[in-house]
Write a structure and sequence with these properties.
heterotrimer; A alpha+beta; B alpha/beta; C alpha+beta; A: alpha+beta; three-stranded parallel sheet; C: 23% strand; globular
Chain lengths: 321, 218, 696
Amino acid sequence: MKAFSYATARSTDSARELAGSKGCYLAGGNDLLTLLKDYLVPAPEILVNIKSLPGMSQIQRGEKSWTIGALVTVAQIEHDDEIKKVFPGLHEAAAEIASQQIRNVATVGGNLAQHSRCWYFRHRDTVCLKKNGDLCYAREGENRYHSLFTGNTCISPVVSSLATTFAALDATAIVLRDGKETRMNMAELYHRAWENPLAHNSLNPGDLILRVEIPTARSRSTYIQVSDKHTFDWALVSCAAAAEVSDGKLKSPRVVLGSISPVPHQVETANQFLDGKTLDDSVASQAADMILKDAKPLEHNGYKIPMAHALIRRALLKLVA
Amino acid sequence: MKDSDKDGVFGAHSRRTFLKSLGTVAATAATAQVNSVAAELEKVNAEKIIGPEAVPVTLKINGQKIKLQLEPRVTLLDALRNYSSFTGPKEGCDRASCGACTVLLDDLPVYSCQKLAIEAQGKEITTVEGLAKSGKLSPVQQAFFEKDALMCGYCTPGFLMSVTALLKKNPHPTTDDVKHACAGNICRCGTHPRILAAALQAAGVAANGTTKTEVINA
Amino acid sequence: MPSWPTETKYIGAETKRIDAPQKLTGEARYSSDIQADGWLYGMILRSKWPSAKITSVNLDKAKQIPGIKAVVTVDDGERTVRYYGEEIAAVAGTSKQACLDALKAIEVKATPLPFVVREEEAIKSDSPKVFEGSSNSSDPRVRENGNVDKAFSECAAVIEGFYSTPVQIHNPMETHGSTASWTDEGVISWASTQGISSVRDSLAGALKLDHSKVRAICDFMGGGFGAKFNAGVEGVLAARLSKETKAPVRLMLTRFDQALAVGNRPSSFQKIKMGALADGTLHAFDAENFGTAGFAAGGATGGGGGGADIPMPYLYRVPNARSSQRVVAVNAGSARAFRAPGNPPASFGMESAMDDLAVKLGMDPLEFRLKNDPSEIRQREYKLGAEKFGWKEKYKKPGSSGGIVKTGIGCAGAAWPAGGASRRTQGEAQINPDGSIEFRLGVQDIGTGTKTVIAVVAAEMLGLKPEQITVRVGDTNYPPGPGSGGSTTCASISPTVYDICNKALDQLQTQSGIADARGANWFAACKKLGVTPLTVHGQWQPGLSSDHACGVQFAEVAVDTDTGFVSVKKIVAVHDCGLIIDKLTLESQINGGVIMGMGYALYEERVMDELSGVVLNPNFETYKLPGIADVPEIDVYLINMPERGVIGIGEPATVPTAGAIANAVANAIGVRVSSLPITPAKVLAALGKVPPPVTT
């Protein structure tokens, strides 16, 4: 970790000003400090602590939608009894993130903005495509943890389980960009990573996630993941699903996969197919087929297809259970 | 002697050891003056750019205020272990993935390797050294002792902090609660079954799903 | 011949770890906690090339970094580095931050050379050579008895399998390293080590000092598992930096460093063909195995001098058996002893083959073992374990469990031929007139409970309580003891303490005139010493210890056939280690062995990148260790055999776990995952659910 200056911002304006073009925002710090310790990103001249920014640490509960401040911690989400009832999938996703030590400091904004976990990107001595090199090592190399879908040469997947869940809940991130608030749904928040290997998400330098707005329209939601280990392990594949259910039929369903694409993976035709359907194994299975139709397995990640298929079926059936 | 040594400020470039002899944990006594200076500094620091060179940092560790001179990039773990004498929290990975460095910040367990020391100002920091009161093991420590929930002991301070925090929040945890709370701590010797049993014993909860043993005599 | 008392109060009972309070309060000072007066921080710069000719190392800029007191190279002049992570230079400075900046400022010029990091590639004749002009592969070492080719034709059933195990990394929680202080009087090394004597000797050798000028101290250390016997490059660098800076230097490796350069368990690729007669008697065995022990397996030892061989056909006596083994050098850090070297991979391969053959014969795998295992002790352990585990009730034909989540059971056996004593072990005790007593032995407690064992034996022999015994170990100023390896410590120190106690009692009784100075008479006898403490020297005695521990384990697993996820539900571990000294710490060791074996079975693997030659997972995030939620119920059954004397347990406990789990997985899903670790990806592949890659 190279030396840097440090400041605590009291307003979003001063945060932007303090960070300037050569600074980084510091919230939970889980991702940032690892990136800096391993020299994976250009060394910032200043870290701007944004944890004291006003109004960003609250959960606001509305009838039509809830707003979760970007500085709300993952632990707060995990332990919020109302979230458990209104957005059970969000609770499940939060409870599975890393460990309690991390959840206690990790923020919603940091979870969404976190960088790739690709082990070539994370390695201090490989200069891969994502670090401005000219090669995606994972493509021909060790790609067991990598994407089945991508719009570019890099196959590093998005790993934010909150993003996967927010996508299923049709949530919107409100981002402060050049002094103005911009609304981005999860597809938009990650779209740039789909096409640009250097990007982890669509945020520009200086952009600040302020909060996430979640419509309450879907009363059923769930999140499940499979890892190599029981706990404290990254998802090999994760799946979030959300819908309203009436008379046993799904309404406005959303199924989203994580850890298999640089963006939360969602297939519109599958959502439409499920809309109005009464779920059974066969319907869930057909939806899973649609969602995984264009998957391009590499040498070591083909297992993610049957795994994702199973998770989609389970998540959907859990919605109506 | 450097200026920083004269006024008892311990820091990167002073290296003066606190220890009269190995095994004795000493700490600087806080004075009213130090406290008020720290409060002033915290105020002044707001919105003010400090560093990258070493700056005064005041940490409240196990109830005592300690004044250090640290670069902003110094982690809390580094400050505890290498700029002062709190070597109870261990460095196992320095990447927030083993839990040996776990301390409580205002009662919440966090990885001290992944917190900047400067961020921990104004918070109550509890390390493993702060668990036993007047020479008496805490109930969690006592249960670890009785159940032999440690071997080499290097991960133990971290597990103790995780379990202590859990029982404070949830005095009657289930087996799954203990597993959830300790998921972020790694042990290579393999003391997990005993840690589970110790946590449940400390909580006065009947243990099941833990190791069972029997000696068969010839 | 001396013998252990038959009626005991502490031996065989549960004595709480005597140094636990220090470890539980943070008071214990581990090697990495040493803060010697004026200490400096040390760090190592490592090769970022898997193979390269280093042409120059410029330290000038690094020396200019504020706070930096010394920068040294490992070797002067041109040299070749042969693996990613090989040591190039080291720095010492007033802070970690200064050292980090200095490492960045060292300029290394190098010409990269071709490299190979995969065993399967390295073994090919046209692959890049780890040592120029020398084959990567050793000549096969062949062992043969009987007539193997003819025997196969006589078999009722024959299986062929290919079983492989990865390189496993020790990953003790405390990394390797030490604080070194070099003064006019000599060098003191506070080392995180399993062998204070070997640290002293290796350091003296490397620094060209008399042994008497080097002292190694290790009061508390955070695990070793076989990787921490010598001072190592890092220990020597710490001493050199201390000499240069005239200050103590603490140089502990980072977790990253730990994965590259300080040891690992060799891989194995075992091709096994095995056959049995119709009655289930093993009859023919033919195996080829190769594995890598890293770069050091090549070149200097003429293309491989061992280090990756495993015992084959392991526990079993097959009348017609042939094995051929090779060690393959690759550009990676070299292997070191790792908890029961050779045995866990041997157990996994052979025990997998045993189950596969049992299935082919239509036999219950437990019956098949009882038919063929030559060890009477293991026979007894299998029978006992089967009953406790409920083998008969639980056993189903492979793959016959219903539902998506299938359950299965398996078992496997262990042997550990060592575990006996180091016969040169010595120690001393000082008995003070006030009745306090202090034992001093030049061994070290690596977390196994060595200090507690000393206290238990002493308390038993002297009629005192364990907490009345002061135990000092971990200092080369004490009488010499063995390194903590091969599960030998307990069998070395117990008879030594026995001897010290007997001699102490003799002298004390003579001097005090009290016929039996033990127990109630202890303080009265000590008081008669007047003002001069009594010091007694003792050494290991025969007849009180032996070797060769066995052990068997049973595993029950649940396998999700949709996701491939394996969950271990239960382990029953049945072990013997002769006379049990302290039940509490003994059971902890068995738990630990099982859990490490479970990591080997399901999670652990060093991943090398073929293209860049780096270790891809030098961390705890992708080098995965078992966590508390992964650990199953473990039931431990100890066969107490006091007549055998004391035997070590650390190693046998980790040997059979992976084989038992692998067999349980195969029993659950009806197909074998023949390569460790058994990940969800491999389970799904074995089930035929994984589509082939799409080439674009």
